[in-house]
Design brief:
alpha+beta, 34% helix, six-stranded antiparallel beta sheet, single chain, three-stranded antiparallel beta sheet
Length: 388
């Protein structure tokens, strides 16, 4: 039997069922430490946290605890790209090679920037196995991608660019702005909002970072459906295939414990290693209409890719840089059309709902078995909409 975990923080009484849903993950033994923040109409209505930053349970989770949110970072990188569009510096329908000339190699001269954001570029992975240290070498990764031949004819299909998304979109941002993604994001988005979200986390902040751990299938019970385990099976069946390469090339991406190293935290891997508090995540999504134009916001929630995913091997939906609520019932996060966001592998989730004026942020350090929306934040999101 799991011992009760104290849930700290505050909430508007109208959202009591949200707190109950958040507590469910702890009651079922699925959480180690986690935090939740929800902004409605510009006001924080839920700010909750509980549990521990480490499996030894020596460090209690606090309001300002930072967690690695994996692909939830992609949403922040996409926001940077849309900000450049609003500044008149980036045209999503222009060729990538206009901004990054080396990208034109091996017939890629006509691929538009838009295909990098909506996962249609055919570059979800590098085919040849890369050195372990390439993961932390920006030039090595962008050079490899510039020289790569697409896995499919760009624009004809889509497939989740699990890690390459950050280097592809990020290099365009860097070429235009002269800043790294982390610098641009800090200066243009997180900094002005006072949002505690970092792409490239300074060493002085590492003491606030929770250590990531894994939910074992035996611990998960019935919380996860069998189809959510299929990714590992696909990789094992074809270690040189697109799915395996997308998630494990460079091989250091699959190294146990790499995400708890100082090297991982301080690097800029803009598809996978953002570190944030729940409040930082909700603050950005809750204020997105203040720093993006209506036209850019419409691109975020308008479907651009839908159907069989060449990498994940099930149907997915994307806007321009963002996941939308998916076809799978368990991968839903909002009932409203003008919603967009991004989950992170293992459980984190951030999204904006322009119709309900919601900004949502959920972070945790015990990774579940989901690649897209995890049952834990999914249950909380359902309770949120029942409370509005």
């Amino acid at each position: 039997m799991n011992h009760p975990v104290q849930i700290s923080g505050s909430l508007d009484p109208a959202f009591k069922r949200v707190k109950d849903a958040f507590a469910t993950g702890f009651e079922k033994g699925l959480e180690l430490g986690a935090a939740l923040s929800i902004v409605v109409n510009g006001k924080v209505v839920v700010s909750l946290w509980g549990g521990f930053c480490d499996k030894e349970k020596a460090r209690p989770w606090r309001e300002d605890t930072l967690a690695n949110v994996f692909s939830t970072t992609k949403g922040m990188t996409a926001l940077c790209a849309h900000k450049l569009v609003d500044q008149g510096k980036l045209d999503l329908d222009a060729p990538v090679a206009k901004y990054w000339p080396e990208f034109a190699q091996v017939g890629k001269e006509k691929i538009p920037v838009r295909y990098l954001l909506n996962h249609r570029s055919g570059l979800p992975a590098v085919k040849n196995l890369l050195p372990m240290d390439a993961l932390f070498n920006w030039k090595a990764m962008t050079s490899a991608l510039a020289a790569e031949t697409p896995w499919w004819e760009p624009g004809t299909k889509h497939g989740y660019h699990a890690i390459t998304f950050g280097w592809l979109v990020g290099e365009v941002i860097r070429r235009i702005s002269g800043k790294t993604v982390g610098e641009f994001f800090r200066d243009e988005i997180a900094g002005p909002l006072g949002a505690d979200f970092h792409i490239g986390t300074e060493e002085k902040l590492h003491g606030r970072v929770a250590r990531m751990s894994q939910i074992r299938p035996s611990q998960a019970g019935g919380a996860y459906k069998k189809e959510q385990f299929n990714l590992v099976e696909i990789i094992l069946k074809n270690p040189q295939g697109v799915t395996a390469r997308a998630f494990a090339n460079p091989p250091s991406m699959a190294e146990p414990g790499v995400v708890n190293t100082s090297e991982w935290r301080t690097a800029e891997i803009p598809a996978a290693n953002g570190h944030t508090s729940a409040k930082g995540l909700a603050t950005i999504y809750g204020n997105v209409a203040k720093f993006l134009s209506p036209a850019s916001l419409a691109r975020c929630y308008t479907q651009e890719s839908h159907g069989p995913d060449e990498v994940l091997k099930f149907s997915t939906r994307f806007g321009s840089g963002f996941m939308l609520s998916q076809d799978l019932e368990e991968a839903w996060f909002s009932p409203n059309a003008r919603s967009f966001g991004h989950p992170g592998a293992g459980g984190s989730l951030g999204f904006a709902d322009l119709d309900a004026k919601v900004g949502f942020g959920y972070v945790m350090n015990r990774m579940g078995l989901s690649i897209i929306v995890d049952p834990r934040p999914g249950l909380v999101a359902k309770a949120l909409y029942e409370s509005l």
